[in-house]
Amino acid sequence: MKIGTAYFFDSRNRQMGDLSGLAAKLQEQIATGKRILTPSDDPIISARLARMAGGAADQTQFASNVKLAQSILGQSDTALDSVTNDLQRAQELLVRAGSDTLNDDNRAAMAAELKSIVDNLYSTANTTDVRGTALFGGSSAGPAYSRAADGTISFVGQGEAPPIPVGDGVTVQASDSGPRVFGGIQVGGTTKDVFKIVSDLAKALDVGGSATPADRKQALADASDGLAAALENVNTARASIGARGARLDIQSESLAKAANDYDIERGNLEGVDIQAAVTDLQKTMLTLQATQASFTKLSQLSLFDYIR
């Protein structure tokens, strides 16, 4: 009789424990909306979900990189728009400087404005991006350009900036190095950068800058060719920025679609049918209540009750 009573209590305790555990699990599934709460619930699907989560993390990082690249490209375009305005203003001054009606004071005033344009160009060339690195400095951690005591401006960056990964095997060059944008300009058989071109023009117009009117005329002709080539460089760079921006827009849409597809597939794999879960919970709770009531009643019976 002792063995039978112990078995009775143990079996009913296990039954009620199983029912309580099932009810708790169903309640958690309803609360979280997830069918799979632990890997043991479905090892195969859990492993698949883990692989998907790793891929989704990569996609999230790529999406973040796309936004970073878009921001840097936007900064580059804004900077080059400023450069365009400065070079166009230099061209306007150049045209006016060709007039024979100007005197030394007029040309000196133009030279002063051209020197101010050089200052603007130098400041723009040393613009930093959203990461705090030089926008046109390539892979260098420091500034892109430096200025010597005599006013000479030189590139002190290094190479090209590393491309930014925006997808599996997909990268984008978010910025251009200074020499690509501001340098490599052929003027009268000599390679110059925009700083040298504008500075030489300012020097030619300043008091004592040109030995003769013929020298000044040649300096203006060289500056005209140089400024035109510099603007072409900048326009080419801006066109490239636009093309890269369009690529990033396409990549951003692709990543957004992939993220949406992931959410749908994950929901299909681990999602729970709320209505069915609620029904199962109600059934489980009724069974548990009935079992508890039955256990309470039977556990209170005496030996004489069993004999009867």
TrEMBL record:
<feature type="domain" description="Flagellin N-terminal">
    <location>
        <begin position="24"/>
        <end position="140"/>
    </location>
</feature>
<keyword id="KW-0966">Cell projection</keyword>
<dbReference type="InterPro" id="IPR001029">
    <property type="entry name" value="Flagellin_N"/>
</dbReference>
<dbReference type="GO" id="GO:0005576">
    <property type="term" value="C:extracellular region"/>
</dbReference>
<dbReference type="GO" id="GO:0071973">
    <property type="term" value="P:bacterial-type flagellum-dependent cell motility"/>
</dbReference>
<dbReference type="InterPro" id="IPR013384">
    <property type="entry name" value="Flagell_FlgL"/>
</dbReference>
<dbReference type="GO" id="GO:0005198">
    <property type="term" value="F:structural molecule activity"/>
</dbReference>
<keyword id="KW-0975">Bacterial flagellum</keyword>
<keyword id="KW-0969">Cilium</keyword>
<dbReference type="InterPro" id="IPR001492">
    <property type="entry name" value="Flagellin"/>
</dbReference>
<dbReference type="GO" id="GO:0009424">
    <property type="term" value="C:bacterial-type flagellum hook"/>
</dbReference>
<comment type="similarity">
    <text>Belongs to the bacterial flagellin family.</text>
</comment>
<dbReference type="Pfam" id="PF00669">
    <property type="entry name" value="Flagellin_N"/>
</dbReference>
<feature type="domain" description="Flagellin C-terminal">
    <location>
        <begin position="229"/>
        <end position="306"/>
    </location>
</feature>
<keyword id="KW-0282">Flagellum</keyword>
<dbReference type="InterPro" id="IPR046358">
    <property type="entry name" value="Flagellin_C"/>
</dbReference>
<dbReference type="Pfam" id="PF00700">
    <property type="entry name" value="Flagellin_C"/>
</dbReference>
<protein>
    <submittedName>
        <fullName>Flagellar hook-associated protein FlgL</fullName>
    </submittedName>
</protein>
